[in-house]
Amino acid sequence: MSRKDPQVNMRYPASLLEHLDEKAKENHRSRTAEVIFRLEQSRAQDEKSKRA
Questions:
Q1: Is residue 1 assigned to a domain?
Q2: What is the pTM of this model?
Q3: Domain tally, the chain
């Protein structure tokens, strides 16, 4: 990721934010890196489902 990547402001439910923070800490990632990792996993699963 670079400074040229677009920035997005989002509102999260407090419980989801807490969950993301816990998982980010467990996985030694920043919150942003955890969100990106999970979105990429979701996209890969969507693409896999399309091919099936």
A1: no
A2: 0.85
A3: 1
